[in-house]
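ok new one. same drill as before - structure tokens go in, u give me an amino acid for every spot. 427 of them this time. try not to just spam alanines like last time pls lmao
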């Protein structure tokens, strides 16, 4: 405008063209830096998408702008290069804009202003290149208005409070967005569309450019599909690993729960049920007995003077003695009966489905016979005797009543010295 209005000359090209063209790489680098901050690491899929769109835009720019400019006869080389630099710069900005729009990240008001400013700049440049050969460009006309509005939007985007969020890193997903799919579909069908358009207007198409462009776009689409398949396979592998880790965690928790449950209801030394589990089984046995004709018997076994074993042979021998007593008690009764360690040197035997007191008495006799056999230890042999109290449940007895009755019977046997002689120790 200064050349025309002040100096009244119209040089082509002029230093103003060099300054103007220098703005394209500056804007492209600035947008690329912003894109690098927004991209989540190495976004190969985004690069392929941008390459597909860029290739199609390059073909379109050549067919619509570069080709006609290059075909003008008699142009000096400088004018030709300057004429070609404008559409190349526009294609460069458009490629970066497409990559920016396709990348993840914030799409706030500043992003819309930024995208709008680039589009207006490209519209003004394309309009200028289309009308200049025919002399249709007028200073201060609509094209200048588009340029000025583009600059205003650039500044407004930079000063907008939402511009701080533009550089925030986004999260890339496997599934492409709808906008990206639309852009890819348009890019992939651009070359065939140009061929159809040229055939309709009966203009000979640039077959070499369209052919090379079609091949490049086709190969890029194949690479994008392969990358998408690999990305899905990788996510499936990660999902399988996550599910396997989840199953292992659940299995560990279940195993831990089983161990805790076992420890809560079993004696850690002998592995026998403890008092809590005995009470639970006794309560269930009593409930079943009330519904049928079966009786429930309980034997309360207390080892006499067991402290002498620990004093004479040590606690290790005492522990092994308790383990052997528990094993002999289990072998002396039926598999359906319950042998429990109540604590210390006290054991209990639950006789379920007993016909009568005689069956409980027989179980007691077997236990007494089993305990008469000496227990061999590294320090010698230990003979253990026990006081045993028995109780037979009545129709309305509960678990506490049976336990109390068997305990009282055991103490009665101990006082009467029935089987309650001191433990015999032989070394």
């Amino acid at each position: 405008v200064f050349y025309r209005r002040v100096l009244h000359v119209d040089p082509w090209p002029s230093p103003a063209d060099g300054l103007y063209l220098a703005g394209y790489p500056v804007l492209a680098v600035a947008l690329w830096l912003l894109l690098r901050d927004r991209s989540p690491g190495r976004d190969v899929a985004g690069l392929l998408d941008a390459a597909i769109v860029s290739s199609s835009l390059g073909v379109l720019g050549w067919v619509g702008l570069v080709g006609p400019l290059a075909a003008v006869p008699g142009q000096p080389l400088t004018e030709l290069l300057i004429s070609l630099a404008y559409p190349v710069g526009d294609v460069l900005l458009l490629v970066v804009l497409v990559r920016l729009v396709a990348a993840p990240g914030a799409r706030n008001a500043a992003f819309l202003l930024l995208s709008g400013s680039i589009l207006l700049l490209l519209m003004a440049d394309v309009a200028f290149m289309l009308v200049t050969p025919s002399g249709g460009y007028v200073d201060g006309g609509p094209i200048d208005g588009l340029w000025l509005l583009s600059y205003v939007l650039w500044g407004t985007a930079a000063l907008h409070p939402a511009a701080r969020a533009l550089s925030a890193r986004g999260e890339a997903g496997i599934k492409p967005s709808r906008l990206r799919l639309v852009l890819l579909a348009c890019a992939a069908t651009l070359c065939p569309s140009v061929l159809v358009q040229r055939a309709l207007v009966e203009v000979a198409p640039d077959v070499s450019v369209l052919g090379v462009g079609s091949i490049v776009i086709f190969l890029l689409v194949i690479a994008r599909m392969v990358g998408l398949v690999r990305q899905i396979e990788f996510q499936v592998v990660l999902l399988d690993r996550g599910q396997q880790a989840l199953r292992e965690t659940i299995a560990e928790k279940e195993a831990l729960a089983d161990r805790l449950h076992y420890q809560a209801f079993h004696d850690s030394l002998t592995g026998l049920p403890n008092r809590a589990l005995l009470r639970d089984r006794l309560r269930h046995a009593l409930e079943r007995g009330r519904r049928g004709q079966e009786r429930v018997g309980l034997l309360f076994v207390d080892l006499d003077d067991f402290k002498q074993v620990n004093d004479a042979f040590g606690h290790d021998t005492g522990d092994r003695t308790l383990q052997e007593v528990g094993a002999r008690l289990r072998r002396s009764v039926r598999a359906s009966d319950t042998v429990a360690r109540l604590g210390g040197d006290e054991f209990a035997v639950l006789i379920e489905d007993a016909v009568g007191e005689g069956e409980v008495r027989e179980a007691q006799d077997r236990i007494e016979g089993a305990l008469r056999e000496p227990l061999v230890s590294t320090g010698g042999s230990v003979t253990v005797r026990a006081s045993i109290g028995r109780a037979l449940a009545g129709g309305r007895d509960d678990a506490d009543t049976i336990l109390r009755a068997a305990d009282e019977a055991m103490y009665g046997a101990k006082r009467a010295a029935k089987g309650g002689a001191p433990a015999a120790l032989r070394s």
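DSSP finds 14 helices and seven strands in the chain. and btw The longest helix spans residues 207-265.
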